[in-house]
Amino acid sequence: MEKKQSEIAQGKAHPTKASFQCMDAIEISLHIEKEGLFFYESAGKKVQNPQVREMFSSLADEEREHIQTLQEKAKFLQPAIASRKGPKEHLQRYVSEELKGKIFPDLKDPDTENIQSDKQALELGIESEKRSIEILQSLLENERKLDVKAIFSHLLVEEKKHLSLLEDLKKKL
C-alpha cells in the first residue's frame, strides 16, 4: 500500500486506469472532507485541553463548510451529467482502495488506536492532513483536466491550512 502511494506520488503509477471527471473529483473531495469532519468531531470529544478542543471544533466547522460547498457544486453540475452514462466503478474502486480509512483514523473502529492524550490527538490530525496532502498532490500530478485539477487544488490549499494550524498549536503546547 505504502509503495503504491509512493509510486503514485512520484508519478510512476496512475491511481486509476480511467481518468477522473469533474464530478468524480467532487466525490473524492467529499469523501476526504467527511472523514475529516468525523475525525475532528470525534477527537474533539476525547481531548481535555480547551485549545485543542476549540481547534478541532473549528476544523470540524470548516469541514462542514467545505462539504456544503462541494455539495452545491455537485448540485450545479447535476443537469450537465444527468445524461452521462457509464459505470463509476473506477471512482468507487479508488475510494475504497486508496481513501477509505487511509487518511483519517476511524475512531469508532475497535482496532484503531484510542486517543490517549491531547498531544496524540494533535499528532493524529497532523499525520492525517499530511496523508491527505500527499494523496491530493499525487492526484494533481496525474490529472490533465483543468476543471478536475481546480477542485483538487482548492482542497489541497485547505488541507495545507489545516496542517499549519495543527502544527502551530502543537508547538504552543
Structure description:
This protein has a domain at 20-77 and 117-173: Ferritin. It has 173 residues and is mainly alpha-helical. The protein is 74% helix and 0% strand. Helix 2 packs antiparallel against helix 5 and helix 2 packs parallel to helix 6. Residues 1-17 have low confidence and may be disordered. It is elongated, with a radius of gyration of 17 Å. It has helices at 2-9, 22-46, 50-81, 89-99, 118-142, 146-172. The chain contains 6 helices and no strands.
Say what the CATH topology of the domain at 20-77 and 117-173 is: Ferritin
* Assigned CATH class of the domain at 20-77 and 117-173: Mainly Alpha
Low-confidence stretches: 1-17
- The CATH superfamily title of the domain at 20-77 and 117-173: Ferritin, core subunit, four-helix bundle
Oligomer: single chain
Global Rg: 17 Å
User: Which architecture of the domain at 20-77 and 117-173 does the CATH hierarchy give at level 2?
Assistant: Up-down Bundle
Helix content: over 70%
Distance N terminus to C terminus? 33 Å
